[in-house]
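Exercise 3.2. Students should predict the tertiary structure of the chain below and write it as structure tokens, then compare their answer with the key that follows.

Predict this chain's 3D structure.
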Amino acid sequence: MNTVPPSIPRPLVRANQWVIVLSVLFSLVTGGYWIMAVPLIAGLMGIVFDFNPIMRAAKGFLKKKPSEYIPEDKAQQKFNQLLAVLFLLIAFISHLLHWTLLAYAASAMVGLAAFIAILGFCIGCFIHYQWSQFRYHNRKHD
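Answer key:
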């Protein structure tokens, strides 16, 4: 029986995070908000079809077997991807509607969250943990 939860090699997660960071930076610097569609569509595909083309492309650059890299929990990464997609979608739609303040705020939030995750602190993981604790304590008191 397999007791190890499904995981994703860390370099693939990092590649996805870098694409988010760079697309947000590019869109903020140039005004080319359409570039955020790349991580948005890739993230949606990852959530809906369990196939992220960014991670699939990055997999070709791995020098070792995927199992030899530090694993990232797949369920946690799916939650993080859901948050990223939500903020990318808000930013993208806001740009289309010329809601500049919301577009910049959502872009900055997802870009900063991805960059902070690259540096080692996962904001999505923290939110997921706090949400789990909140749900646990609410069930306990029922």
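Discussion points: The chain has one domain: 8-140. Residues 74-96 form the longest helix (23 residues).
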